[in-house]
Amino acid sequence: MSTNRRGFLKGLAGASAGAAATGLAGCAPDISPAPVLDATEDNGRVVLMVSRYPELAREGGAVTLRVPDRPNVLVMHPQGTQYAVVSSLCTHRGCPLGFQEGEAICPCHLSRFAIDGRPTHPPATIPLTTFSSSYDSELDELTINFVAGEEGFPSVVDGKIFFPFTQFPQLRTAGGVVQGTPEGYGKLIFVFALDGGGYSAVDSICPHQGCGVGYQEASQLLRCPCHEARFSRTGAVLQMPNTGDTIGPIKTFTVTSDATGVTVEIV
Ligand code: FES
Ligand code: FES
């Protein structure tokens, strides 16, 4: 296999690096965030030769994988040839997660998550985002796919995603929303039919520290669970993070429509 297909290890930072990145104090002393591993992607995929990374190779081990322009992810090795990949920040207040006894665990207030992202212990109630991965035991290679999409959701074709009205009739009506993860982009997006006519398409990665935002139907806004930033359906900041930081709008995409459906340009 050529080296350009492989994830490239740049450095293995101490566990404290992730904790320091959040600026959050008061973590439980006996639980550490997973150590940070820097890697690069090729066509939306990172390939790791597992045996090169002792923290990941051992059963019960995990690393926090940091890839430019992708959300940080927690790569877990619960047992045998089983691996799982989830977003690395706790959905309670955004602390970097560790891995213990087969679950992702937050050092800050002890939320726990199953390896499929489900919260299993409060205070967190929102699931972690999961990422597609596969392990080739002959090659000892773990492939993490950042651009895998949701089955049945439209894919990116030539940089665009088309949402036909026949499949997404809610986009014909003001207030309608479609959300999902397109193959070729690999991150959740939202498409809104706006009240005044027209459309917007908005990314799900919070510009503060990269947590995933969710759409709240009742209030018609996007909320980040990590530090409570709020965004409008056109991506504008309605409420800054509760850390005192100042952030800009969430990423948006160009949207056009015709009689047959809505097209979102993914750039
Ligand atoms: S930040 Fe994770 S439990 Fe509070
Ligand atoms: S990551 Fe801090 S408000 Fe979203």
From TrEMBL:
Keywords: 2Fe-2S, Disulfide bond, Iron, Iron-sulfur, Metal-binding. This is Rieske (2Fe-2S) protein. The keyword Coiled coil does not apply. Residues 45-142, 186-264 form the Rieske domain. Signal peptide: none annotated. The keyword Disulfide bond applies. The lineage of its organism: Bacteria, Pseudomonadati, Myxococcota, Myxococcia, Myxococcales. Gene3D superfamilies: Rieske [2Fe-2S] iron-sulphur domain. It holds the Pfam family Rieske. It comes from Archangium lansingense. It comes from the Bacteria. InterPro entries: Rieske_2Fe-2S, Rieske_2Fe-2S_sf, Rieske_Fe-S_prot, TAT_signal, TAT_signal_bac_arc.
